[in-house]
Design a protein that fits this description.
Distance between the termini of chain B: 104 Å
Number of strands of chain B: 1
Helix content of chain B: 40-55%
Distance between the termini of chain A: 66 Å
CATH class of chain A: Mainly Alpha
Structural class of chain A: mainly alpha
Oligomer: heterodimer
Shape of chain A: globular
Number of helices of chain A: 9
Helix content of chain A: 55-70%
Number of helices of chain B: 8
CATH superfamily of chain A: Cytochrome c oxidase, subunit Va/VI
Structural class of chain B: mainly alpha
Number of domains of chain B: 3
Number of domains of chain A: 1
Strand content of chain B: under 5%
Largest sheet of chain A: none
Largest sheet of chain B: none
Strand content of chain A: under 5%
Largest interface: A-B, 50 and 58 residues
CATH architecture of chain A: Alpha Horseshoe
């Protein structure tokens, strides 16, 4: 029985395992999806962050929000920070600012975002990574 | 609560290319990998072993040194990691203004430091883009001044963190660690021996079965058998006796 099982598995390996649908999966037609406007995008993520039940969902939403060709609006970042506070995860709040720092194209934009989010950052007591690990 | 960031998007692009590693760094990596393997074995062992009486392994530890030196968190047992996480979480549940710098740094190290699945993320405490951002760096934006009606597009091609050079080894199924390899080869050897025995030796070569005999049980069974035989004999004699009587015996009397 063992021998027949081994033979069967060897036979299975001999056949190249190329899915019939591999070719279809390789192409992602984003144009087929409904493209959101920046306003819709902002409203969607604000709502999603408000409803995020746990840290997993907050981090998933952060990954998704930063995976577009625009920087999320300050309102979205604010809701993300409030969600971090709600799930009591301080490091993710720090990481949100870190992600913002490298998402914007220059230091001036980062400074503008920090200015815009100054109040919420002060209210919640969130440090930046620069403050946690100052460069020697 | 302090779970690592989970990557959901699939992609082909790369974030940034790390510097080539020197032989010293590679040797250091190997040493760290060996330490981690030992720690894993200890953790697995601690799950199965009855640790009663071992003392220190199950006793809560003083977490202050861990707060002072967060990198020590990675070397703790699962139990003690849980203890430190609980202590930290209790702090995070309260006002963040009251957090100490040590608590903040420990949380950041646990979440995003170079241990566990982020083992090679050596720039975690530097002012450099992390290796697991869901967008390429330097960032390329559609516009710096989006209007409400500006269309938002997903990054194309999407970033595939599993293909990042720093994580290629982790996701490479051909490069297994020594412990896993050992168990795979052990399984193959056992399977080969079993196959050989099945084909060329058969039942004659089966392992000697150890039979444990209970003399009291044997005695009880023998007693029962003896009683059964006696009962059968008695029953047969009675039957024979009843058959041996003829109808005219009564008449003769």
């Amino acid at each position: 029985m063992l021998a027949s099982t081994l033979r069967a598995s060897l036979r299975a390996r001999a056949i190249p395992s190329v899915s019939r649908f591999a070719g279809f999966r390789a192409v992602r037609n984003y144009s087929d999806h409904h493209l959101e406007t920046f306003e819709e995008f902002t409203a969607r993520f604000e709502k999603d962050f408000q409803e995020a039940p746990d840290l997993f969902e907050v981090q998933r939403l952060l990954n998704n929000a930063f995976a577009y060709d625009l920087v999320p609006a300050p309102a979205v970042i604010e809701q993300a920070l409030l969600a971090c506070r709600r799930v009591n995860d301080y490091p993710t709040a720090v990481r949100t600012f870190e992600a913002l720092k490298y998402k914007v194209e220059n230091k001036e934009q980062y400074a503008a975002y920090l200015e815009e989010l100054k109040d919420i950052r002060k209210e919640l007591g969130i440090d930046l990574k620069e403050e946690l690990y100052p460069e020697a | 609560m302090l779970t690592r960031r989970v990557i959901h998007r699939s992609f082909r692009g790369l974030v940034s290319v790390p510097k080539p590693r020197t032989p010293e760094e590679m040797a250091q990596d190997k040493e760290e990998a060996a330490k981690l393997a030992m720690q894993s074995i200890k953790d697995i062992g601690s799950m199965f072993s009855n640790s009663e009486g071992k003392g220190d392994d199950t006793e809560p530890i003083d977490s202050r040194p861990i707060f002072k030196e967060p990198s020590r968190f990675a070397t703790l047992s699962l139990l003690h990691q849980g203890q430190v996480l609980n202590e930290l979480q209790q702090m995070y549940d309260k006002d963040w203004h009251k957090l100490t710098l040590e608590a903040k740094q420990l949380g950041y190290y646990i979440g995003f430091g170079n241990w566990g699945s982020r083992d090679k993320f050596d720039n975690w405490n530097k002012q450099e883009p992390p290796y697991d951002l869901p967008y390429p760096t330097p960032s390329k934006l559609q516009t710096n001044d989006p209007k409400p009606q500006t269309l938002v597009h997903p990054i194309d091609p999407p970033v595939n963190l599993a293909l990042h050079p720093i994580r290629v080894d982790q996701f490479n199924p051909k490069r297994l660690d020594g412990v896993t390899k050992f168990f795979i080869y052990l399984t193959l050897v056992v399977a080969a021996i079993a196959l050989y025995r099945d084909k060329f030796i058969g039942e004659a070569g089966r392992p000697l079965e150890i039979v444990i005999v209970d003399p009291y049980e044997e005695e009880r069974k023998a007693e029962q058998a003896r009683e059964r035989i006696e009962e059968d004999l008695k029953a047969r004699l009675e039957l024979e006796k009843s058959k041996s009587r003829k109808w005219y015996y009564l008449w003769i009397k």
